[in-house]
């Protein structure tokens, strides 16, 4: 389903044309089939299928919200984004970028009749808030208890589980003194959230690029990072395949990703099972993985 959503995003041509920008390299754009295949046959996607995590639902709803926004479907996009936020919380940071993308596509289709950004943003936020409230209310109706809020959202906000993963948070908070924990939780969340307005301001002529780069930020900086989000982000980069030949150090970046992908499980085994390593072994590899993901986003 995520591959189908990526297919729809590619066929919308939102990556090569907006109301304020038309790429001179649009004839070099990847086909929708190639983008979908880059997701389906990505090793990270295959490993995610084997692990069967719930993060695949958030990935699907994010790509679906983006696909609907690329076609100017306000209600459908708001609903899909609300569902993504309902399952994982952090997709809510995509709200500004999704508003900009949907408004841009509507403005491109009807320049004279398009609503102002303020009025459109209000409409989108109201729809998003309504769907989010309805989903939360439905959960309470089914469970007759508000404990799901702390179980689902409190887990991400407060990071009680420090099980090692491919992210950056767990090691930092293992070493953190408890008296500083609340402060740095706020710092880490504010850091991730700060990218949203900055990307919108910098890429206001290409809002789809802002959405995709925010997905890359999630893959690197979310509390419980996973390879499923990294695989989805790499597939999304194919939507901008027409600029690949302008990027630098591509071979170095992908070689480093391959290097860390192979050494990550090995160092984890040495630390957890063989007892011949320590946490620094595994964290150094995850740090390298995140650094190269950042490098790909920047390039």
UniProtKB/TrEMBL annotation:
One of its GO terms (cellular component) is GPI-anchor transamidase complex. It holds the Pfam family PIG-U. InterPro entries: PIG-U. It is a multi-pass membrane protein. Its main location: endoplasmic reticulum. It is found in: Endoplasmic reticulum membrane. The keyword Ribosomal protein does not apply. GO terms for biological process: attachment of GPI anchor to protein; GPI anchor biosynthetic process. Pathway: Glycolipid biosynthesis; glycosylphosphatidylinositol-anchor biosynthesis. Keywords: Endoplasmic reticulum, GPI-anchor biosynthesis, Membrane, Transmembrane, Transmembrane helix. The chain crosses the membrane at residues 30-50, 57-83, 119-143, 168-195, 207-225. Belongs to the PIGU family. This is GPI transamidase subunit PIG-U. It comes from Elsinoe australis.
């Amino acid at each position: 389903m995520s591959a189908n959503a990526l297919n729809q995003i590619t066929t919308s041509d939102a990556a090569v044309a907006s109301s304020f920008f038309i790429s001179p390299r649009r004839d070099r754009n990847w086909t929708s089939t190639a983008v979908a295949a880059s997701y389906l046959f990505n090793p990270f996607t295959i490993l995610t299928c084997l692990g069967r995590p719930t993060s695949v639902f958030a990935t699907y709803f994010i790509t679906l919200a983006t696909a609907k926004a690329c076609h100017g479907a306000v209600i459908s996009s708001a609903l899909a984004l609300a569902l993504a936020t309902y399952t994982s919380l952090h997709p809510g940071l995509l709200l500004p970028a999704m508003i900009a993308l949907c408004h841009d596509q509507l403005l491109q289709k009807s320049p004279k009749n398009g609503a102002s950004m303020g009025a459109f943003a209000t409409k989108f936020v109201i729809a998003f808030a309504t769907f989010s409230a309805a989903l939360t209310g439905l959960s309470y109706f089914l469970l007759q208890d508000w404990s799901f809020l702390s179980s689902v959202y409190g887990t991400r906000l407060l990071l009680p589980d420090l099980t090692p993963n491919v992210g950056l948070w767990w090691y930092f908070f293992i070493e953190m003194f408890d008296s500083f924990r609340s402060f740095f939780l706020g710092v880490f969340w504010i850091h991730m959230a700060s990218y949203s307005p900055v990307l919108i301001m910098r890429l206001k002529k290409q809002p789809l690029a802002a959405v995709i780069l925010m997905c890359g930020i999630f893959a690197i900086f979310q509390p419980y990072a996973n390879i499923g989000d990294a695989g989805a982000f790499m597939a999304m980069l194919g939507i901008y395949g027409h600029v690949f030949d302008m990027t630098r150090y591509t071979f170095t970046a992908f070689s480093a990703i391959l290097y860390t992908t192979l050494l990550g499980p090995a160092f984890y085994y040495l630390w957890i099972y063989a007892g011949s390593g320590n946490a620094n072994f595994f964290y150094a590899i995850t740090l390298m993985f995140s650094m190269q993901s950042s490098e790909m986003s920047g390039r």
